[in-house]
Amino acid sequence: MQEPACNAYLDNAATTPVIDEAIEAMNDVLRHAWGNPSSSHRVGYAAKEVLEQSRATIAECLGVDADEVFFTSGATEANNLAVRGACMARKSESRRIVTSSLEHASVTRSVRGMRREGWDVEHIEDVAGDFDMEQLHRALLKPTTLISVMRVQNELGWLLPVPEIVAARDELAPSALVHCDATQSFGKLSTPPRDWGVDLLTIAGHKIGGPRGIGALYVKRGTQMFTNAFGGGQERGLRSGTEPVFLAAGFAVAAKKACENREANLAHAYGLKARFVEGLHDAAPDAIVNSRDDGSPYIVNVSLPSLFNQDLLDFLGERGIFISNASACTENHTTVPKGTWRPKHPLSLQAAGIPLKLGKSTIRVSFGFDTTVEEVDLLLQGIKDFSNMG
């Protein structure tokens, strides 16, 4: 298969290229530890050993115990499992969920499904990146089963105040569980579930140089959960299905490298963000930076009022420069048969307070560990050239 010509890949919030070390680890497992980890013989035991070593590595990166880490097919499944699994295990209680207005679709649609089953749901506003703690305090005065909030907003890079949210839970609704979607945080920013005090936490492999198709859910020991997948009882009964040992091995290698180099990578990302934002003043003088200085440096969301984002993406794509005009997970509706796509949840940008008229002028630039200054400069030149065409 011929690789697309790529001069600058700046869509790392969607997915990252798999690092060589992870590819080598996966190939090694496929050749030498290809057995079913549930099999009671030496071939199975070899696969089981790799699986548990990978689990221990992920747990070490999170600062938790290995038996609190459950492998899933990715962050989407982990989020679904966290929301539905936590709520269905406690459905005799308050039947109430509190979440933010800016969550990933895998959370918002899971919550919507619970609401259709009679659960009460309240969305906490986060306009301009200012999470409404007063609204949260009022919401938690009512009995609550689950609070689900992300750490890094995937389109804007804003940070949600997870430690403060947990503190409010501890004070006002101590029986409620807290789930954090840390998909855009893990391996990039400090992500300590125990220090934060969360009960559930979602991570994924392909955001940090690992393979797609593998993620994990941290479940604090003692937390009751209901399974979404019935079968052979793998992952201690929480997530049945034969584990993809080679993917777990690749995930673990990528996670270890990301966590070991986190501070250096973070400093590099801050430098790239500063260069990009500064260069925008020349490339597109009317540009509006929607991301915040105190957010994740890996994601920069920008509105370009005089430009149509899809035309810009097409222009850049012809130059081998790749960015995004939205979360990759929200763009799939273009391939769904006409009339079957039903967007019910407010668009993240609108919920964030960005005017609707800027929706088709907004782009997302996201950096990876290996993004170079030269790639940023290519993007800036591309934006400038496209702006000058008008």
Polypeptide structure, described:
- The structure is a single chain.
- The protein is α/β, with parallel strands linked by helices.
- It contains 12 helices and 12 strands.
- The protein has helices spanning 20-32, 42-62, 75-88, 105-116, 133-139, 162-172, 193-196, 245-260, 262-283, 309-318, 348-351, 373-389; strands at residues 8-9, 69-72, 96-100, 120-124, 146-150, 177-181, 200-204, 215-219, 288-289, 299-303, 321-322, 362-366.
- The strands form 3 sheets. Strands 2-8-7-6-5-3-4 form a 7-stranded mixed sheet, with helices on both faces. Strands 9-10-12 form a 3-stranded antiparallel sheet, with no helix packed on it.
- Strand 3 (96-100), helix 4 (105-116) and strand 4 (120-124) form a beta-alpha-beta unit.
- It is globular and about 65 Å long.
Brief summary:
The protein has 390 residues and is an alpha/beta fold.
Mean pLDDT: 92
Separation of termini? Answer: 37 Å
Shape from CA axes?
Answer: globular
Please write the string of helix (H) and strand (E) elements.
Answer: EHHEHEHEHEHEHEEHHEEHEHEH
Helical region count?
A: 12
Query: Strand order, biggest sheet?
Result: 2-8-7-6-5-3-4
Total E-strand runs: 12
The whole-angstrom Rg is: 21 Å
Helix content: 25-40%
